[in-house]
Amino acid sequence: MAPDLKSFYKTVDDLAEPFIERLRDAVAIPSISAEDERRADVVRMGMWLKGQLDSLGAAMEARPLGAQPGKEHLHLPPAIIGRYPAKKDESKRTILVYGHYDVQPASLSDGWKTEPFKLSVDDKGRMYGRGSTDDKGPVLGWLNVIESHQKAGIDFPVNLLMCFEGMEEYGSEGLDDFIIAECKPGKFFADADACCISDNYWLGTEKPCLTYGLRGCNYYSIEISGPGQDLHSGVFGGTAQEPMTDLVRVMGSLVDGDGNILIPGIKELVAPLTKEEQSLYKNIAFTMDNLYESLGSKTGIFPDKESTLMGRWRYPSLSLHGIEGAFSAPGAKTVIPAKVTGKFSIRTVPDMEPQEVDSLVYSHVDKVFKSLKSKNTMHCNLQHSGKWWVASPKHWNFTAAAKAVESVWGVQPDLTREGGSIPVTLTFEQATGKNVLLLPMGSSTDAAHSVNEKLDRKNYIEGIKLLGAYLHYVAEEPMKTS
């Protein structure tokens, strides 16, 4: 029997403005984890979040994660963990939810049309601000669900475990070991029956989705050096072998203009496409216009929806990201850099094992560099990696979420995979041994990580309803392990 959610939904609507003010307060804290000078703000954000949950009666802790690797003078922001209700009800399921309270860097000079750390709501209900959709809005969604149940006088349907971190935008340093330790018998997360993460987005702008797969990411650097210092091209051009020239040639050997990875052996690692999987793409609510709107141009590689979605989700990609050491400021500077470092990543998919990908990358880069017969020196290194993840969308965790989507939005959700990586998803799955669901709040046009990041008011308020309805349907869903 479906739960009676009308009172809950009405309460969320009644509290919409206070919930937006709560988001405004959160956005105002510049919790940029990548900037050392902002570390105090990241910690302040974590403690603000803890304080909000304390005031709602949750049993919260701020767990220290130690010194930051390579920066021992700098402490990692705490993991904010907690339980609601404060005392576990043994008759109810226990759901573990995750989110992050840190954000990407942002500055008005980057091209923002509003102050990035001041929530600005336009006449169409678009709420602009850094972290609004990634991931402060979704994190606050869980707080708002708790408050709405209290104000509506509705019994909370599950035991809610919470884990909110402050380093997600900087690689979640320190978190994996913490999660693994706390999932052991008798520890904080040990009794979770399933996990839910709201840190991704709809495929388009009109239809919600449930996400059951993510690509992984192996991120590499290629360092090429030669001269003992930067050189003047008028003096040394034509007489010194230039690291930049070598690097461009090596990086040009990695991928072609149509996105085909040129490293031998990579394609052979990919799991074959089955007919059953191929059939899933046909009815997904996505058009090429959705892609063009997100791109801001018609520069997509493929002409059709199915190929585009498979290129984004179930096939690997290689992207070139930048070059350190090269002149990049406006104007002209005739310098020959003594050392340059190129950066690229490979988004991995089933069944690509990270170590096998590393081996193929190193072999290819080494072979291409040797073919140049350069007197310069080259080193190729893995900076970080996260493995791909695929869950079962037939699990009760997903079927409960699908019912919640139908209740709130009136449609059946698309079952999607994503091209991006959320490594903590795999960590939770492996550490708990339980199903993990990605339940997005925001839409594809939210511009997370970019200028003018926003969260639509409707997605925020209806998203709060969705998170709450999900918990109610989880409480009633028959226990299945598929």
UniProtKB/TrEMBL annotation:
Pfam families: M20_dimer, Peptidase_M20
Molecular-function annotations in GO: metal ion binding; metallodipeptidase activity
Residues that bind Mn(2+) 2: 100, 134, 199
GO BP terms in the entry: proteolysis
Binding site for substrate: 199, 232, 334, 347, 421, 449
Active site per database record: 102, 168
Feature type site, description Important for catalytic activity: 232
SUPFAM superfamilies assigned: Zn-dependent exopeptidases
Cofactor names: Mn(2+)
Note on cofactor: Binds 2 manganese ions per subunit.
Keyword presence, Magnesium: no
Family: Belongs to the peptidase M20A family.
The name this protein goes by in its record: Peptidase M20 dimerisation domain-containing protein
Organism: Extremus antarcticus
